[in-house]
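Write out this protein's structure.
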Amino acid sequence: MQRHFLKWNRGVILGITAGAAVGLTSLGFATSSTFASASAKLPTAISGSRHRPGPALRPRLGRRPMVGGLVVTANTTTLSVRSINDVTRSYTLNSSTRYLEGTTATDSQALMAGERVHVVTSPGSTTAKTVRILEPRAMGMIVGISNSGNTITITGRSGLERVIDTSGSTSYHEGRSTVHQSALKVGELISASGKPTSNQTSLDATNIAIHLPRYAGKVTAINGDVLTLQLRSGVTATINVTRTTTYRDGTTTSNLAAVKDGSFVVAQGVVTGTNTMTATRLQLGRPSAPVPPGKTAPATSSGPIAPA
């Protein structure tokens, strides 16, 4: 309706303007061409704001490109970085390149394979202006444990292998719990923080966190210490429990006898094969849903799931 009104209004304005031009011209006040040129500008004044370019169409000031990723190789003249989408880029290092570790100035000798860095360049250039080394941290799946547990080899998402050295001062955590070094197993996902070693080939870990994968679904079979779960995706998973597996039903300690055919469980542990896990922890019952204000949380049960 607004468009029709503007069109009608525009016609009225043009008609009035033309009539006024003829009348005033006969009196010698102005020429019709003057009003014609003036009337031609009126529609622009009325609807011109509708065609102004939005912020997305306005040119943006140039910014220095910044790429983050893991160091693949590094020396005094060249740096290769693999981004999270598995694209490897090479950068030239020179005497003008700045190196920062956090906020502290350092040099190219601090770069080591597997470190997380941000590289800043000039637009259209592959020469690094600034290389910022982020907090030394390694994350990946354990593929090897040697030297009485003091040397751990992991493989990250990018496929790079990193070596993590531990010592008596290294702390270990699994969720919010403090655990012993013996809790580390091949196949577990861990993250380690610390400082690069003097030879720049591994990481001296001050803290290692264990991130256990989860399988959640309905129990379809129980065969001694082996549970069969049907996951939400429809995939069948095999869960092996051991004497060290812990059980929780809500906030209460439970046991294997409480697990029934049809129960919903969440298993955490070490993946030992395709859709196969050795569980270190088994949570009975569905995860509780958020309770709206003023409502009472429904009672939870670890028993069989009622048919929908």
